[in-house]
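job 3f2a | input accepted
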Amino acid sequence: MTVCHRWILALALPVLAALAPPLAHANEPGESALQAEHLDVLLHKIEPHRLLLVGEIHGTRETPALIATLAQHMASSERLLMVGLEIPRDEQTRLQRFLDSAGTAEDRSQLLEGAFWQREYQDGRSSVAMLELIEALRSLALKTPIQVLAFDIKAEQQNDGAARDRLMAKRIRKALEAQPQARALILAGNFHTRIQDSAPWDPKHRFMGHYLIDLNPYSIEIMGITGSAWICTGPQVSDCKARDMPSNPMHAELELGDEVNERGHHGKWWLPTSSASPPARGS
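job 3f2a | predicted structure (283 res):
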């Protein structure tokens, strides 16, 4: 296992590896009202920014659902919204075919035939929730200009973390240069979206977010503080499964700053809970 993997696991396991009784998906009226209030605050904060980077722990229902809601609010009939997903770029044609389709069961099946969705190593990025997000974007594109960008490198290239961050940023930058009036909403793992100038395991490592810093991005991390997530804690297929979160001292809150925080982002949105979203294949 690489030094990078050890750092990621060291940070993720205290939150995810221990077992605790899973909590029900939160949908209390008061909580929904608070989430709507937080959403309004975030939308106001990012208004001056062309680029919003959202970092997640892969494999939950909640963050992709929030991205769908953010896209709905950020979309405009007068300005293209580009939504970037951490999907290999060689899935772009298949993805676009689905976005241009009627969204039938057959259309969905054809999308899921892609290698990204069918791979054995299911790390949470090809989940049911991600499929639902893409369907929400397909529906939104019927009413307003939406472009969905698969910005990850090809699967066979994913063995160099530093190069991967650089190449993902390059693809996002190129897409924005081709659409100079567009706004962008980018969802990726919460290490890629860091804009700090180094990594804990390597002072020379640059994250995807840092390569985009000249575009004045706003970067926020969204994560449930209880519940579960479908994650991988190692390189083996057996390392990937739904894992419950243990109790921790974190509190549900929205904190938006102007400077980079201790986790490498401008802001953080800690949700009361999250729930694991399983792989979409076979769904």
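job 3f2a | The longest helix spans residues 29-46.
job 3f2a | closed
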